[in-house]
Amino acid sequence: MKKELSRQQFLRQMALLSGGVTWGLGSFTGKAFGATPYAQAARGKVLVIIQLNGGNDGLNTIIPAEDDNYFTKRPDISIKKEDALPLSNGMYMNPAMASMKSLYDKGLVAITQSVGYANPNRSHFRATDIWNTGSDATTVWDEGWAGRFLEMQYPDYPIQLPKDPMAIQLGSVESLLFQTDVGRVGTVFEDPNLFYQLVSGTLADSELPPATLAGDELAFLKQIASSSVQYSTVIRDAANKAKNAYTYPNTNLAKQLSIVARLVAGGLETPVYLANIGGFDTHANQKTQHANLWKTISEAVSAFQNDMTNQGLADAITVMTFSEFGRRVNQNGTQGTDHGTAAPMLFIGNNVRGGLIGANPSLTNLDSNGDLRYNFDYRQIYSTVLRDHLGLDAFKTQELFKQTFERVPIFKNSPDALPDTLGMEINSPMPNPVTDFTVIQYAVYKPVLDIKITLFDLQGKEIKTLYRGTRTPGTYQLTLNALGLSPGIYLVHMASTSGLSMYKRMLVQ
């Protein structure tokens, strides 16, 4: 359902965009950009997503090279232990990923093992839509999870356009990832200067839409379409303002990441980028083709990480890989693999914990189709990225996915333990320090019979009970009145009869 946009608002915005002559940034006033909420909400973090189109074979990416079942099921395409790059716990990296292994050894790569979802879909198109929208297998959504996030960060869009693009996709085919109920929020191009040349001088469509239902729809189309044109100058200027501080390989993916690096270094405040690499539909002759793909990814990502480090920007950026599904455990008759289920996701950056996350994929405890079972629902991974990297709060994350998902210890500020050992969590009060009132958010991931949230002082004296009762899975909040409390440090403690216990510090001024 689209946002309500009155004709008066639309005409006012059309006037801003066109200036009566052309679509262009020059027609905007400084005031038009004065209140973009992103800087405060997401703290300037950047997420670079690399989509592996075709279905990446996880077992030949992060390899269980000490599991005899792996070689039994893949006699021709398996990778021997002595040829692979050792990680830990009996897992190895594809030998073509030497550049990625170098980052891993520095603690800059986190690998979530066996990511998927219940009742996985094996169609490239439907599975890609699921991963792009954040739905389950039986629900069809037409808005991307990143698009919904950006709508939350820029609530005045499209009435007020931010000064920089909300999202950028390198490529030519627009992704569902950035679709929202008011159209797309991503700007798509392959080269900043060619993009500028394509749209520069484009005349404004100054004809007013008719006062009909169809006219309202046309208003939205004009409004959204204009953003790409007005951002062409911003993108070109940012790309030309900065230079890469590292030499990139001569590959298409490396070119995409080098452009992202220039835009970030050039001052663009765009929070989400999408790059693409295809070729992962490896039904035949997989071994060499798959290795070459990961060599390309590893070298491109390594160059990007080095570039951002050299420019002092690496602390703000995380790279994430995903694919629409993994491949089957058994090789097929043409020395390839067919469409499967779960697969690993990689996270690269200064703020990740580094290392393997989750149990190794079991090659004996398979699902009813003989495929890998997933360790983590992919929406757990997205929820972790949204909350711990992009700064979205628990309530908005639950709203975005229409349910609550336990986070995974990917980032240095993520929960310390795997979800199996948790079941609930409590966040630090906000604001903190507090002078009068503060809000405390907490989440429950499994039905808990008796939760107690209590305020203690540092001497262990119980000051008051803030909540006691039963909660079903979901995200909750309570308001704490700090008026009357003496200045000092207090502990907000959450516990349950199952033995779970955690606390957060609160400073009263």
From TrEMBL:
Pfam annotation, one family: DUF1501
Which superkingdom does the taxonomy of this entry point to?
Bacteria
- Residue ranges of every copy of the Secretion system C-terminal sorting domain listed in the record: 431-506
Q: Note the InterPro entries from the entry.
A: DUF1501, Secre_tail, TAT_signal
NCBIfam families noted in UniProt: Por_Secre_tail (TIGR04183)
| Protein's recorded name | Secretion system C-terminal sorting domain-containing protein
Q: Which organism is it from?
A: Aquirufa nivalisilvae
